[in-house]
Amino acid sequence: QVQLVESGGGLVQPGGSLRLSCAASGFIFSINAMSWYRQAPGKERELVARITSTGSSTNYADSVKGRFTISRDNAKKTVYLQMNSLTPEDTANYYCNTYWRGYGYWGQGTQVTVSS
Q: What is the pLDDT of residue 96?
């Protein structure tokens, strides 16, 4: 079955950096677009970044453009989210997402807290 396992979250000071990872299994990773979403307390889940199957194209939410970078390693079946210049507004649970055979799949999420 499809599994997405996120890691790399934690507590970081404003201005700091984190790199999130999402290890995928149970589907053909190399042909699937992958996305990162986040959900802050009391807010709806929002798309943060998306990457095509080959990594040739990426899209970002306006709020993270220039600070976050999504990338992937198809050999390792892993997608990454490099987050720089973090602010308290980036505090959220971050989720990995993909669609396979008509269904959407989510990981369990990894918490990112930006605070001094």
A: 97
DSSP string across the chain: --EEEEE--EEE-TT--EEEEEEEESS-GGGS-EEEEEE-TTS--EEEEEE-TTSS-EEE-TTTTTTEEEEEETTTTEEEEEE-S--GGG-EEEEEEEEETTEEEE---EEEEE--
Averaged pLDDT, 38-59: 96
The b-or-e profile of 15-39 (16+ CB within 10 A means b, else e) is: eeebebbbbbeebebeebbbbbbbe
pLDDT tier, 115 (very low <50, low <70, confident <90, very high otherwise): very high
Closest CA to 15 of 66, 82, 68, 87: 87
* Residue 9 near residue 94, CB atoms below 8 Å: yes
